[in-house]
Amino acid sequence: MDSSEFLHPFTRLLEDLAGSADIRRIEAGGSLAELWDSFEASGFLDALTPEVAGGAGLGLSDVEPLWQALGRYVVPAPVGETMIARALLAQAGLEAPRGPIVLAAAKDLRTGPIPLALVADWALVETGERLVLGRLREASVGGTGVHNSLAATLAWPAEPQGLSTTAPSGGLRPLGAILRAAAIAGAADRLLEMTVAYANDRVQFAKPIGRQQAVQQQLAVMAEQVVCARIAAQLGCACGFPPQLAAAAVAKQIASSAAVQVANIAHGVHGAIGVSEEHDLQLFTRRLHEWRLTDGSEAYWAERLGALRLDSPAASSVEFIRAIA
Amino acid sequence: MFDTLTLSHLPPEDEALRAPVRTLIARTLAGLPNDKRARSWQGFDADFSRQLGAAGYLGLTLPQRYGGAARGPFARFVVVEELLSAGAPVAAHWIADRQSAPLILNYGTEAQREFYLPRVCRGETFFCIGMSEPGSGSDLASVRTRAERTSQGWRLNGQKIWTTNAMQSDYMIALVRTSGEPKDRHAGLSQLIVDLRSPGVTIRPIVDLTGDAHFAEVFFDNVELADDALIGQEGAGWTQVMAELAFERSGPERIYSSVVLLDAWLRHVASLGRRGDAARLAGQLTGQLAALRALSVAVTARLDAGESPILEASVVKDLGTTFEQSVPVLIGDDLGAHPDEPVDSELYRTLLYVSHIAPSFSLRGGTREILRGIIARGLGLR
What we know:
The complex is a heterodimer of chains A (325) and B (382). Chain A is built from 11 helices and 8 strands. With 325 residues, chain A is of the alpha+beta class. Chain A has 2 domains: 4-166, Butyryl-Coa Dehydrogenase, subunit A, domain 1; 173-322, Butyryl-CoA Dehydrogenase, subunit A, domain 3, CATH 1.20.140. In chain A, the strands form 3 sheets. A 4-stranded mixed beta sheet of chain A has the order 1-2-3-6, covered by helices on one side. In chain A, strands 4-5 form a two-stranded antiparallel sheet. Chain B folds into 3 domains: 12-125, Orthogonal Bundle (Butyryl-Coa Dehydrogenase, subunit A, domain 1), CATH 1.10.540; 128-235, Butyryl-CoA Dehydrogenase, subunit A, domain 2 (Beta Barrel); 251-378, Butyryl-CoA Dehydrogenase, subunit A, domain 3 (Up-down Bundle). In chain B, the strands form 2 sheets. Chain B has a 4-stranded mixed beta sheet with strand order 1-4-5-8, covered by helices on one side. Chain B is globular, with a radius of gyration of 21 Å. At the A-B interface, helix 6, helix 7, helix 8, helix 10 and helix 11 of A face helix 5, helix 9, helix 10, helix 11 and helix 13 of B.
C-alpha cells in the first residue's frame, strides 16, 4: 500500500485543525471536543486497526509518516496513541470507545508524566501482563506544573475496571518509543525549515546571519540530526506491530539525542525572540524536550539495547545491527 | 528537508554475496591481530587484493566486458561491509575499485577502459589519487601542478602530497592545471593518468604518527606523458573530481573505521560479564551504528538509482566520521574507568592506534568543515 495516498489528506486535516492558534487555545485549557470530533470522523484513528475490525489495516511503516506529521504540527491531541490503543484492543476483538486515549506504562498503578493526559478521556494502562482501558476521571490526574504543558501523571487507587487484554510482548513502552521518535523527527524537520528561513532573513553585520560560516556549520549539524531522527523513526517502524525491541531502542535513542541538539540549535540561531512565548518556536522545542523524556530517554534505550548486544551470539557489530528491522 | 535519504533494503541476491566473501576472509586472514585489522581500509596487502580479484569481488559494478560483475552498488555495499567488519587489508585495490574504475568507465575512452578496467578487476593494478598539494588542501581548485601540451602528449611538472599509497601504486589520477592560472579556479583543470614508473617521478613516503607510511609526497620533474594520459575532457577536471568524490564519500568505510576496536571492546566487556555503564555504552554505540548503517544503505540506494548523491554523502560522512572518532574516546574512558581490570595488550594497542589515527577520519576525502559548507549550501544558505 502506498502511504502517500493517506499522508496528503492527513496533512490537510492537520493544517485545518492544528494551527498555532489552536495549539495555544488548547494549551490554555480550551476544549478539545471539536478537534477530536474531526479526527473521529476522519477514520484515521483506526489506521492501524485490522480491516476485519473496521479499520484501515495499515502497517507501522505506512503509519510512520502520519506520526511524523503529528509531530510536524505538534497536534495537541493523542492521535497516535489512540491509533495504537485501538489496534491493540481490536487485536483482542475489542472495540474501543470514542474519545482520546493515552498510553500508560504504569508501575504499581502510577505513571510518570504522560504527554496530553490532560486532554484525554481514557488511558490504556499496562499492569504487569495485562492492558486495561481505564477512565481518566476515575484516576488521580496530576498536572506537572510545567508552563503550558498538557502532560500529567496518572495514578489509580485500585486496578481500573474496563476493557482488558494481554499486554504485547515488551509492553507499551516500545510502541510509545517509536511514536515519540516519529513525532520528534517531524517536529525537528519543521524546526529546521523555520530556522533556515530565519537565518536567511535575519540581518546582522549587514548580511543575513545564514551567510556566517559559524551559523552555517550549526545548521548543517542540525540538518544531520534531523536526518538521523527520521531514519531512526523509519527503522523503528520498519517491522511488525508491536515493534522489535532492538528497533524501538535504536529509534528512540537516536531521536531523543537528536531532539536536544535540534532544539538547542534552533534557539541558538533564533536568538532572544525564540525564547519568547509569542514566537511559535517554543511550541515545537518544548515538545521535543517532553517527547525526549517520555517512554525512555536516550540512556534508557541505550542500556536496554546494550544488554541485548552483550547477550547476543552475534560475532560482530555488523551482524548484530543487520538483524535490526 | 533532505528527505531523499529514506530507509532502504539490500536485495536478497546481493545479500547472497555475504556468506562466500565472509568465508574467504575467514580463511585468508585467520590470526591477523586486531591492531592490524584496525588499519581497516589503510591496511595494504597486494596478495589479498589479488585473491579478492580472482574470486570476483573487485569491479563488482563494472560491465562484464571489462572483467566486472555487472552488479549494482548494493552488491558492492555487501562485500565492502564484510571486508570492513573483519578489518581486512583492502588498501591495495581500494581506490582503484571505489573511484578510479568508475571514473575511467564514465569518462574514459574505449581504449582506456579496455586497458585499465580488467587489470583493476583482477586486483593487479593499483591506483592512487593526486589531489592535495603543499598549497592546496581544502582549497582544491588552487592546485598548481601543471601539464603542458607537447607534440606527443603532455609534460607534467609540480608536486602532490598526502597521496595515499602512492609508493605501492601503479598509476595516479592527478588533478592538474592544463590551462590558465590558479586564479581561474575551476576552469582549466584536467585529470591525467600518470604512470608512476615514468622517468621524472619521485615518490617519498611520509611516516605518520602511528609509524605507518600510508601516504607520500610525489614530485613531477618534466614527466613526459602520452596523449592518452588525459582522462575525460580537457578542462572538465573539476566536474569529474566532484563526481568522483561522491563515490569516495558515500561508502560504508565512513562509518566502520573504528568497528574493529568496537568489536574487540565488546568481547572484552562481555568476557568480564560487566553490565551497567558498559551496557549503556555498548547500546549507545550500537544504536548509533545501526542508524548510520541505515543511512549508508540509503545513500547506496541513491547511487543505485543512478544519482550522484554528493549532498547526501556529505551528511552521512560527517555523521559517520563523528561517530568513528567518538568510539576510541568513549572506549578509552571506559577502560580507564576500570583501572584494576585486566586489558590485554592487543586491545590496548588497537585502542591507541585508533585514538592516534582518528583525526584523519574527518580530514581524508573532504574535511568536516568543507562538508558542512556543502550541506549548508544544500539547505539554501549563502
